[in-house]
Design goal:
225 residues; mainly alpha; elongated; disordered N terminus
Length: 225
């Protein structure tokens, strides 16, 4: 435990958490916009025979408005995704680092709390372990292993896995889109994914607020103990 305290320096996650929350709400707003543009795109494509050839470099007759709306919606989504994603990863690093100053034996180090997101297969459970451990430590540093994982974390991770799967499936299908039926499936997957990102962000906002408050209080308590 002493080594952990020397290796990492605790920092209050409150200010960073507030920034994360703001950008997650913007991410929700962009998901709503993107959802409507995806549905608009789906409806516009439905006017064509399913075997009509499509190309990423050419616009079908009468699809100019739908393609423009979808493009702008995708751009807005990308901006909020990049910023909220960066801030969320920074917040995850912060709360994991703080946890290592409070307890020992945690399953994921601060650098790997981010790194595991980019490792195939391990990204299915290791980032969840990092947040689960941080949550448990924020409740009881001495007996964190005995703490139950709250359903809030399970809902967040389940929604994240499903949304990530849909995003990946949509991207792969888009690369192999040759006719209208393919494009409609892609638009449908995008719409479902956008819809899932709304509750996903709401759950994550709650986690950021609760875990941040719990950890900040624990850090204040240990500082004066």
């Amino acid at each position: 435990m002493a080594k952990n305290k020397k290796a990492y320096v605790a920092r209050d996650p409150s200010a960073l958490g507030r920034m994360v929350v703001v950008w997650l709400y913007l991410r929700i707003a962009s998901s709503v916009v993107s959802l409507f543009t995806d549905l608009f795109q789906f409806q516009a494509l439905s006017r064509f025979p399913s075997d009509t050839p499509v190309s990423m470099t050419e616009t079908l007759p009468g699809m100019e408005t739908a393609d423009l709306a979808t493009g702008l919606g995708s751009l807005l989504l990308l901006v909020t995704l990049l910023v909220s994603g960066f801030l969320t990863l920074k917040w995850i690093y912060r709360v994991t680092m703080n946890s290592h100053t409070l307890a020992s034996g945690l399953r994921v180090s601060p650098p790997w709390s981010i790194g595991w997101f980019f490792v195939p297969f391990a990204n299915l459970y290791k980032p969840f372990q990092a947040i689960s451990d941080a949550w448990s430590v924020s409740l009881s540093p001495e007996s964190w292993r005995a703490q139950d994982t709250p359903s809030l974390l399970r809902w967040w991770w389940g929604l994240w896995l499903v949304a990530s799967f849909l995003d990946n499936a949509s991207f792969r299908l888009q690369l192999r889109t040759h006719q209208v039926s393919d494009a409609m499936i892609t638009a449908g997957l995008d719409a479902v994914s956008d819809a899932l990102w709304i509750p996903l962000c709401l759950v994550l906002i709650r986690i950021v607020q609760r875990l941040g408050a719990q950890q900040a209080e624990m850090l204040r308590t240990t500082a004066f103990s």
